[in-house]
Amino acid sequence: MMATSKKILEQEPSEIEMLLPWHAAGTLDARDARRVDEALARDPELAKQYAVIREEYAETIHLNESLGAPSARAMQKLFAAIDGEPARKPSVSFNFSARIAGFFARLSPRALAWSASLGALALLLQAGVIGAMLVKNQNASFQTASLSTNEPITRDLGRITPPRALVRFAPNARVADITALLDNYQASIIDGAKGGLFRLQFGDRAMSRDEFAGLIRRLQNEKIVSLAVDAQ
Amino acid sequence: MQVLYGRHHVRVFRFGFRLVRDEQVAEDLISEVFLDVWRQAGKFEGRSAVSTWLLAITRFKALSALRRRKDAELDDEAANAIEDTSDDPEVAVQKKDKSGALRKCLTALSPEHREIVDLVYYHEKSVEEVAEIVGIPENTVKTRLFYARKRLADLLKAAGVERGWP
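^ Those are the sequences you sent over. The predicted structure of the assembly is below.
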């Protein structure tokens, strides 16, 4: 039987031989995948080459995963730039969102699994920003405090407000670390990242002054936190 | 945008990092890529996957960034900038670390070969998608990856690793 694989120094590779990497990655359509499977079953040389390709595939993934993730600086830079952009037309934004949503459905299982935790954090961020905008647009007597000393601080004493803090994450903080920190402190991001500061809310109940001071101290001792201040 | 960023920024970063071999430049690329997406959202026609669109923009931005640097500068920096904790291929072989040698040789491929290996193996792109991202015919995609693999085999052989192919 004539081998499907060829001596590459003498001849061009066969079509099947060239498809092997995509077969290893699982991205061939059903027809091509079946053709490759059949060729692998009848050609030991091709099967040997395929084993080599599986090693390359595994190590390429290993190498890329070892590159880590970008720091929070990249995200801060992006959203600061977006803040400086002119307002978008709602219709364009809607169409884009609809298209994006449609294509998320096509992501591979590995990509989906990988991005699940990041997606959750991003949704949290989005919900926080929307919530903050709604609060800001209401003409209620409630107003969150900020670092500015020029603004009046008023509160509706009838409401129980969970404690809030302004936090700046270290430039090398990774999204996974931030997610873990939010989990540990039962915190959610309700606004950010203005000037690199995120407004965090902790739990769903009020805290005593001492309790909150302790929480701020713990935050300040976190490796990925470069600044944590009371934003009550 | 935050959802899109959350889902894709790490892969965009890694693809850019492998092309420019500079972490800071790769981080700057992310901002540029997603800002472009923000500006051009209306132009996205939905014919391809979002990740394919993002990787194509990343590639374009990375090549532009590389062009801004002089070749000599790039060669010097390339050897030092990329974080690579593995041993040289020869040392790895002496330690019987075939995997380490393979990863080291993967970083030693040319930019053209690196990008095609990453797109197929790591980013799980089909022949058609790679053709769209790189801007070459589908047949060229197949032959380019084949010769990238052959080059990889040559590098490994030079480092003393025989894998039985080619």
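The CA atoms of residues 109 and 152 of chain B lie 7 Å apart. The mean pLDDT of chain B is 85.

Shout if you want it in another format.
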